[in-house]
Amino acid sequence: MTQPKSKIVRIATKSDGKTTLSAAQKQFNSLTKKIDRQKKRLIEWKETIPLYYQKVEREYEPAVEILYNQKLEWVRLLDQFYGKSLFKKSYKLKMKQLICEVCEQLIPELNNDEPKSLFNKYSDDDYDTIHQETEAAVGELMKSLAEGMFNVDLGDDVDISSPEKFHAHLQEKLQEQAEVQSKEQPAEPVKQRKKTKRQLEKEARQKEEEALASKSVQEVYRKLVATLHPDREPDAQERARKTELMQRVNTAYGKKDLLQLLELQLEIEQIDPAHLSRMADSRLKHFNKILKEQLSELDQEIDQIEGAFKLQMDLPFYALLSPRQLMAMLVQDIKKLQADITVIRKEIETFQDPAALKAWLKSYKMPKNSVPDDFDDFFFEGMMPFDFK
Q1: Given 101, 287, 297, 373, which residue has the most CB atoms within 10 angstroms?
Q2: The dihedral of CA 259, 261, 263, 266: what is its sign?
Q3: What pLDDT, on the 0 to 100 scale, is given for residue 384?
Q4: What is the pLDDT of residue 380?
């Protein structure tokens, strides 16, 4: 059953234009407006996320696989021409460097032993040996930093094959250390300072406000239940309508969603905008407390979703990211992949002619470091013939 459009919960100014809203009324309007906006944003995210991953699976990942396989074709072409007498030693040195460079990128990406075989064929060092030595060096660095930072002995059995395993091992050792220290030095009971009269009064006020705020939500809920309880409705069609409404009421109450409860009251005409305008500021303050908590929870949920995507896409935490922007960026990434595939295919076709490959190699300048910082530095005419990113 399609839910009817929610009625806007707002406190309107009086028609005479002379009476202005109180501070509590203005805050109520501001909070309900922000909550309404964040709810829509959260719904948009929840609708977009499955579409995003669906597009990734159907379009992005297949394009990436095609690109990687085309890069492998490029390496095969270099391997094929490497032994030709047409290419002198300086050209073969460039071909050797290119083969190793591309294969090093492809090995972890392709479920194929060929890139590793080609790498080992043209490299002075075995790939697995290099990889193991690199992992060992990184692992030792991580271990040394963690031991220095947390003053803990991680032992020789630490598993650094993944950040998750390393973190779990670190947590385990920290827990063991804490337990040993706890046994050796029993914690002395912490002497709490006696609270001042002002502190005690403040805590009492806070507890009272929380209780009143909770009571306000309960009152709204009870009024809705009294009107909508389906068991008291003899008409079958009306009972079905009330059952659906009660489900929405229970869901909103379970989430402490005061705004949704008020929207339901407006929807069934249990209250009207004039009722909200006449509400005492003392009660509005309790409503505002609940609404602030509700807005904070919405903000946190949205921040978690957006933060995960920002981390995945290497965006700074302060960057603005909306569901539409996320989809637009994915579309652009897919277009770039398709363009890269077109370029590499064209270059492979061109370089079937050894003379064309030789002409390109002549202009290609080898990077000073064996692994360049950015593959974009190498295109046709002294650079890579296609984007290797």
Answers
A1: 287
A2: negative
A3: 47
A4: 37
Integer Cα distance of 6 and 41 in angstroms: 16
Helices 114-122, 61-82: crossing angle, 10 deg rounding: 40
Q: How does DSSP assign 244-307, residue by residue?
A: HHHHHHHHHHHTT-HHHHHHHHHHTTSS-HHHHHHS-HHHHHHHHHHHHHHHHHHHHHHHHHHH
Domain boundaries, the chain: 23-47+208-312, 137-181
CB 72 within 8 A of CB 345: no
27: Cα within 13 Å, side-chain hemisphere: 16
> Own/partner pairs for 237-245, CB < 8 Å, 24+ apart?
244/1
Length of the chain: 389
Question: DSSP code of 242?
Answer: H
| pLDDT at residue number 329 | 96
pLDDT of residue 388: 42
For 250, other C-beta atoms within 10 Å of its C-beta total 13
Q: Which amino acid is at 183?
A: K
Helix crossing, 127-150 with 114-122: angle to 10°?
Answer: 100
Using the predicted structure, report yes or no on whether residue 69 has a pLDDT greater than 50. Answer: yes
Give the span between the Cα atoms of 31 and 225, in whole angstroms.
25
pLDDT digits (tens, 9 = 90+) for 362-371: 999 887 754 4
pLDDT tens digits for range 249-274: 888 888 888 878 888 777 776 766 67
Please compute the mean of the pLDDT values over residues 340-362 and round it to a whole number.
95
This model's pTM is above 0.90: no
User: For the chain, what is the radius of gyration of the CA atoms?
Assistant: 33
List alpha helices for 83-162, DSSP H.
89-106, 114-122, 127-150
Sign of CA dihedral 253, 255, 256, 257: negative
356: left (phi over 0), alpha (psi -120 to 50) or beta: alpha
Burial class for 260, CB neighbours closer than 10 Å (0-12, 13-18, 19+): buried
Predicted pLDDT at 376? 40
Q: How far apart are CA 165 and CA 357, in angstroms?
A: 46
Q: Tell me the C-alpha to C-alpha distance, in Å, between residue 184 and each of 150, 171, 178.
A: 19, 20, 10
User: What are 142-186's pLDDT values in tens digits?
Assistant: 778 877 887 888 887 777 766 777 777 778 878 887 777 777 666
